[in-house]
Design brief:
This protein is α/β, with parallel strands linked by helices and about 375 residues long. Helix content is about 50%, strand content about 15%. The strands form 2 sheets. Strands 3-2-1-4-5-6-7 form a 7-stranded parallel β-sheet, sandwiched between helices. A 6-stranded parallel β-sheet has the order 10-9-8-11-12-13, with helices on both faces. The structure holds uridine-diphosphate-N-acetylglucosamine and uridine-5'-diphosphate (UDP).
Length: about 375
């Protein structure tokens, strides 16, 4: 029996981990034993436990309760605690997701004691090292043994950084295996879509009608913590919603709720509070989120995961960033990089309002069984 330790911590990792856990339970339970470690990076019920319950993830075997803090403090505390767990459990592999501080901490802890790392969502690059996530990704990839990239671009980025496509199993940290394999988030969107249709009441509860509202999310630190950027994004959303008499559903990360109180100009803050169109919601559950994504007319976001889910559900996305790791979405014409620039955001909205029907969404994120493929590759090494 192969033993893996899965490290989760932030909201998107909990969601991504659901796909592999499900594949193990359904197809590999005699071959793989999964131990789940939650770092506690996200801890509010609506940022963590709701996903564990709703997506059927087993209760984490360890919760390290690290919580928030500066990058160094948060990551350092995690490394120390993850190392203790790894030494106690001595797994065959550590499985890490994405690019958060939890991902980085796990990769440092595991690599120092020579436990092979499986990195799911490897190879993604923004080529912007001022993003904390970019540093995390690069470091995690270069410490990993098995690297699973959801896109061809991600796979090619790894080749450009010196990884070899010709390596054969057995793979090691010095002789890593790289795979272009599809996206576990796509597995989840397909798997949970019908359940969302049956169980979510988010549209009725908020008086939202199919195709008649925009879905927005904002949480990137450079948008929340820079008042200029935060003000520009909210000014654009307030204007678009007023001029077009269209609702914007805005489930907010706690970081953004706090930033609105401190970083938004008073006039905009008042306009937001009195807006009849902008519906600020607390963070919503995954089923509610995919209900919102699959029924909206358009997505506005700075989230990596929400950009992709917009694409899965064939909705155009206005991206509040100066670049994206998910370049295929922009190349397909389904995403527009609008940065935190009111003029570009409005122009992108006008563009999608007239051209939406012409957009195509080629299937580039796998076949919905990426998690099963990853399990096979781990077992085969
Ligand atoms: C983290 C990831 C980011 C990811 C995001 C997903 C890093 C460096 N960043 O950003 O890549 O896109 O998660 O959502 O790891 N907070 C709460 N309650 C919580 C969690 C956070 O109130 O349950 C607040 C705290 O004020 C905290 C702030 O949000 O200081 C930021 O949390 P943190 O986990 O440090 O980073 P995120 O912005 O969530
Ligand atoms: N998500 C959610 N509820 C919300 C906001 C996001 O369930 O209120 C889900 C979303 O569907 C996606 C993931 O969280 O699966 C994306 O996480 P987030 O935007 O926090 O981080 P990122 O993907 O940018 O790292």
């Amino acid at each position: 029996m192969l033993k893996i330790i899965t490290i989760i911590g932030a909201r998107p990792q909990i969601i991504k981990a659901a796909a592999l856990s499900r594949a193990i339970r359904n197809h590999f339970k005699d071959k793989i034993r999964e131990v789940i470690v939650h770092t506690g990076q996200h801890y509010d019920e609506k940022m963590s436990q709701v996903f564990i319950d709703e997506l059927g993830i087993p209760t984490p075997n360890y919760n390290l309760s690290i919580g928030s803090g500066s990058h160094g403090k948060q990551t350092g505390r995690m490394i120390e605690r993850i190392e203790e767990v790894l030494l106690e459990e001595m797994p065959d592999y550590v499985v890490i997701y994405g690019d958060t501080n939890s991902t980085l901490a796990a990769s440092v802890a595991a690599s120092k004691i020579h436990i092979p790392i499986v990195h799911i969502e490897a190879g993604l690059r923004s080529f912007n090292k001022s993003m904390p996530e970019e540093i995390n990704r690069i470091m995690c990839d270069h410490a990993s043994t098995l690297l699973f990239s959801p896109t061809k671009t991600g796979y090619n980025n790894l080749i450009d950084e010196g990884f070899s496509s010709g390596n054969k199993s057995p793979f090691t940290a010095d002789h890593p295996g790289i795979f272009h394999c599809g996206d576990v988030m796509y597995d989840n969107s397909l798997y949970f879509k019908n359940m969302a249709l049956r169980e979510s009441n988010i549209l009725q509860d908020n008086d939202l009608k199919k195709d008649e509202y925009i879905l927005g999310t904002i949480h990137r630190n450079n948008n929340t913590d820079d008042p200029g950027r935060l003000n520009a994004i909210f000014a654009a959303m307030i204007n678009i919603s007023n001029e077009n008499k269209i609702n914007i559903a805005l489930p907010l990360h706690p970081r953004t709720s706090k930033a609105i109180e401190t970083n938004l100009d008073k006039t905009l803050h008042d306009q937001l509070e009195n807006s009849s169109y902008i519906k600020i919601l607390p963070p919503v559950s995954f089923l509610d989120m995919i209900m919102l994504e699959s029924n909206c007319s358009l997505v506005m976001t700075d989230s990596g995961g929400v950009q992709k889910e917009a694409y899965f559900f064939e909705k155009p996305a206005i991206i509040f960033r100066s670049e994206t790791e998910w370049t295929e979405i922009v190349d397909a014409g389904a995403g527009i990089i609008a940065d935190a620039d009111q003029r570009k955001i409005t122009a992108a909205f006008d563009h999608f309002s007239t051209n939406q029907k012409q957009i195509t969404y080629p299937k580039i994120f796998g076949d919905g069984f990426t998690a099963e493929f990853i399990c096979e590759m781990i077992l085969g090494n």
